[in-house]
Amino acid sequence: MANIKSAKKRISVIEKKTLRNKMIKSKVKTCVKKVEAAIAQNDKEAANAALQVAISEISKATSKGIYHKNTSARKISRLTKAVNKIA
């Protein structure tokens, strides 16, 4: 355990940031799962609607520094390709 006041503060700040990052990543994962579920049911309209929400959440996470920009681009690209494959 840290003895120095600034080190104690850093620990508490890191805990808060970690919690925030987990919440946002969890939200993104939930949105991605909704898109994948719609794809599995071959529901193009629901998939497109869920895709827009997922893209928005992924972009927000990227702007907050939780995902690298290439990671978010890859996730968005793969989801979009999957939705576009639905007949």
Count of DSSP-assigned helices: 3
Shape summary: elongated
Which oligomeric form is depicted?
A: single chain
Query: Which structural class do the helices and strands define?
Result: mainly alpha
- Low-confidence spans: none
The SSE string, one letter per element, is HHH
User: How much β-strand is present in the residues?
Assistant: under 5%
The CA-CA distance between the termini, in Å, is: 58 Å
Q: Please tell me how large the radius of gyration is.
A: 17 Å
* Biggest pleated-sheet summary: none
Number of strands: 0
Overall pLDDT score = 95
Helix content: over 70%
Describe the secondary structure blueprint for this structure.
Elements: H1 5-40, H2 44-63, H3 69-84
Helix pairs in contact: 1-2, 2-3
Protein name: Small ribosomal subunit protein bS20
Function: Binds directly to 16S ribosomal RNA.
GO molecular function, one term: small ribosomal subunit rRNA binding
How would you characterize the overall build of this protein?
With 87 residues, the protein is an all-alpha fold. The protein has a domain at 42-87. It is built from three helices and no strands. It has helices at 5-40, 44-63, 69-84. The longest helix is centred in the N-terminal third of the chain and has 36 residues, at 5-40. The N and C termini lie far apart (58 Å). The model has no long low-confidence stretch (mean pLDDT 95).
Short overview:
It is built from 3 helices and no strands.
